[in-house]
Fold:
Amino acid sequence: MISPRINLAGYLGTVRYTGPVEGTSGTWLGIEWDDHTRGKHDGVNDGKRYFTCRVPNSGSFIRPSPNVSYGRSFLEALTSKYIETPRGSASQEKVILGSSQGSILVEAVNLDKIRGKLADLGRLREVSL
Structure:
């Protein structure tokens, strides 16, 4: 399972636990922080293990809140990078090729057909997100 990623005030982390913490009320998120100095423990609270961190003492509990920004799923990231929405019935589009120093404007024909073929994620052999 791929764990959700979060961003809280510029600190990135991975959700390792979601649920109650004994002796408290409500739901907590057990986070393993990318910056281990943000952590306070390794997933243990009052002697009970809730999650495990890969780096010792890089974990902490936080409450879910509007300040927590959740990343997007693998499929959402894959789709946004590799699938382009068809543009409609126009059979010709103008496309800029090259860099800003040597760019040229060309007319491309039937790009929606190409977009359709590229949207078949089953054909991908390697991805980079």
